[in-house]
Amino acid sequence: MPTEMFEFQVEARQLLQLMIHSVYSNKDVFLRELVSNASDALDKLRLEALRDDSLDADTSDLHIEIELDQDGRTLTVRDNGIGMSYEEVGKLIGTIANSGTAAFLQELKEAQDAAGAEGLIGQFGVGFYSGFMVADEMTLVTRRTGESSGTRWSSRGEGTYTLETVDEAPQGTAVTLHLKPADPDNQLHDYTAVWTIKEIVKRYSDFITWPIRLVPEAGDGEATPEVETLNSMKALWARSRDEVSDDEYHELYKHVSHDWRDPLETIRLQAEGTFEYQALLFLPAHAPHDLFTRDFRRGLQLYVKRVLIMDDCEALLPPYLRFVKGVVDAQDLSLNVSREILQQDRHIRMIQRRLTKKVLSSVKDMKAKDPDKYATFWQEFGAVLKEGLLSDSDNRDALLAVASFASTHAEDEPTTLQQYVERMKDGQDDIYYMTGESRQSIENSPHMEAFAARGIEVLLLTDPVDEVWVDAVGDFKGKRLRSVAKGEIDLDAEGDEPSDDSRDKQAGAYAALLNWMKEELGEEVKDVRLSTRLTVSPACVVSDAHDLTPALENMYRAMGQEIPPTKRILELNPAHPLVRGLNEAYQQREDRAELVETAELLHGLAVLAEGGQPKEPARFVKLVAQRLERTLH
User: Fold this and answer.
1) CB neighbours (10 Å) of residue 396?
2) Which domain holds residue 110?
3) Tally of structural domains, the chain
4) What pLDDT does residue 310 have?
5) What is the pTM of this model?
6) 193-232 as b/e, with b when 16 or more CB fall inside 10 Å?
C-alpha cells in the first residue's frame, strides 16, 4: 500500500501547536507518557495471551526499551506488546478528536498555573503527542500481534501525517522522536544523555512491572554496550510501608488512573490466612468529569501473583465506590478467569466486602483526623457515595456515619445526622429535611417558613439521589427522616400554637371554602386544607405522605418509566390577608367567576413558589394581568 497523507482535524492541530510551542516547565513528562503507553501495550498482550491460547505471540520476554542516538539526536521507546493494525493507528494515533481534545483544551484554558497545565497531558489520553514538546518529528512503527505486516506513521506536527504499510516490522510498537536541537544552556533537558533518562525513569516509572531497558549507542570500534534495566519492577504493594515514598505512591496512582493530580488519600491493605491478597487503593482529589455517565470506566487492576489479568475489574468494589482507583494482587485465583466467573467467585466477593469496609473506615478516619481533607472528599464524591444508601444495606450504618449534609444550622458547616440529633429541640421526634435544586431555592420555599420561625433545623438536600435514599433509609437511631414538603406537619411541640378549641373554630370557619375549592380545583389537587407550616406565604402545595415528589416523578420519566402524574395537596395559610379575604368573599357569595379566578391564582402561586409551572401558564399570566389591571382603576 502506498504512503498516504492525511490532515489533522482543527482541534488536533490546535493541540499539536500547543505541544510544539510548549511553555511547560517540565517537559520530562513526555517520557513518562510514552513508557506508560508501552506498559499498557504489554499488559494488553499478556491479557490477550491468557484469553486466547491460539494467539501467535511471543510473550517470553515482554519488555520496554529506550534507545539513544546522540549524534542523530533521536530517542526511541520500543515495546514488544500488542501493537496496532493499520486501522487502529489511523483511529488512535492519526486522529485525536476521540481522545478528549476539546475537553483537554478547555481544561488547559482554565488551568491556574503551569504545573496544573502540564499535568493535563496525561488526563485526556493525549500523552503520545507530548513528544512534540521535545521533538521536531515523530515516527511510529507498529505491528499488531497476529498480523504479518506493520504500519508506519510519521508527522512533523504541522497539520498533516502519513500512513503506510511496511512488510518488515517486529511485534509491538516503536516510537522514535527526532529531538529538537540541543540547548547548551540547559543540559538538564538533554534527552540523549544516559543520566537524564535514568533519572526520569526512576522518578516516574520505577514501579512499572515490566523491565525498562536502556540501550545506549555504541561508539566507533567499541563493543556493544551492556543493556541496563532502569526500573526496580518491584510492586509497590509488595514493599513495606517504610520502603515506599509518597511520591512513588502518587506516581503509581497517576499511572493507573491517568489523573495528573496527586491522590487525596492512599489506602493499603494486606490480607493473610486461607486466602491472601494485597491491595493498594487511592481516593482521588477530584471527581472525573464523566463520573455519572454510563461510559465511565470503573474497577481496579486485578493481578494474580504479580501478573495483570484484568485492567478494570468491576467486581472488586460496588458501583458507588467507582471513583476509587488502585490495584489488588491475589495469590490464589486462576490466571484464566472471565468477568462472568469473577462476579460469582466467593473469593472476589470476600475481597469486595473487605475493600468496601476498608474504604469507608478510611473515610471515617479522615473525617475525624483531617476535617479539611474530608470536606474536599465529600464535596467531590458525596453524591455518588450516597448511592450506597440505596444499594448496600450491609454498610448503610457505616455510610450514614461518614455522610454530611447542608443544614439551616450553619451556612458553611455541613452536619452529620448524629450532630443533628444532638441539637434537636426537646420534644422533637423527627429529623426534618427538604430536597431541592439548590440551597437558595430550598431556603426560600414556603414549606420552610414555620421551621425558620421556630428555629427548627432542617437538612437541605440538593443531590438528585437525595430524593430516593431518604425513603429507603427511613430513620436514624429511631428518629424518623421526614420531609417538610410531604404529609401534614404539626409543630405544636416546637412553639406556641393555637389551642385545640381555636383550631376547631378556625377549621369550621374555613370548612365551606375548603370544600368549594377542592371541587373547583378537582382536576389539579387531591385535597385543600389549612396549613400549619406557613407563616408568610398565602399557600403552598405538598405531597401526600407516601406519594412521589415531582422531582422523583421527573427522574423516573427521564429513565424511560411512565409514571402517572400525582395530584398534590393545596394548603392555605388562614392568617394571610388574601386567604381571609377570599373566605369572606365566598361567605358573602360575591362574583363566582372572580372567586374561581382567585382560587386558580392561589394554586398557581403555590406551584410557582416551589419551582413548578402552572398547568396552563398562558391562562395564569392572563389572570394575573387582568387582576393587576383592575387594581389600577
Assistant:
1) 16
2) 4-229
3) 4
4) 80
5) 0.71
6) bbebbbebbeebbbbbbbbbbbbbbeeeeeeeeeeeebbe
